[in-house]
Specification:
The chain has 114 residues and is an all-alpha fold. The chain is built from two helices and no strands. The longest helix is centred in the middle third of the chain and has 75 residues.
Length: 114
């Protein structure tokens, strides 16, 4: 606490700004009981509920679309893997066919050189 030459002015100078705890009363304008709501407030609440329902529906559709895209992506990845495997088999078969031809060419070349 501060000390100064005028202590009487600095003792609890902000005492009147102390917050009091909130009272436990009900305000009819903010009450959630539908019978106490005004017609305009009721319409506003219905509009908000409709907007929330629409947003939930949009989110659900977006989730379904995302799941569908993920499923098609998995299918494409499987298809690509299958095609790569097939190409590997074709390349291996091509090399196996070329081996005897290459050996024959090398023998032919060796005969010509010697």
């Amino acid at each position: 606490m501060q000390t100064c030459e005028y202590p009487c002015r600095h003792v609890n100078i902000h005492a009147h700004y102390v917050r009091t705890p909130p009272t436990n009363h009900t305000n009819p304008h903010t009450h959630t009981n539908p019978t106490l709501q005004t017609p305009s407030r009721k319409r506003e609440m219905e509009r908000i509920e409709r907007m929330m329902a629409e947003r939930d529906e949009e989110e659900r559709k977006a989730q379904e679309e995302l799941a569908k895209k993920a499923g098609s992506r998995i299918e494409l990845e499987k298809k690509i893997a299958k095609m790569l495997k097939h190409m590997d088999h074709l390349e291996r078969a091509k090399r196996e066919e070329e081996v005897p031809l290459l050996q024959a060419a090398m023998l032919e070349k060796a005969k010509v050189c010697f």
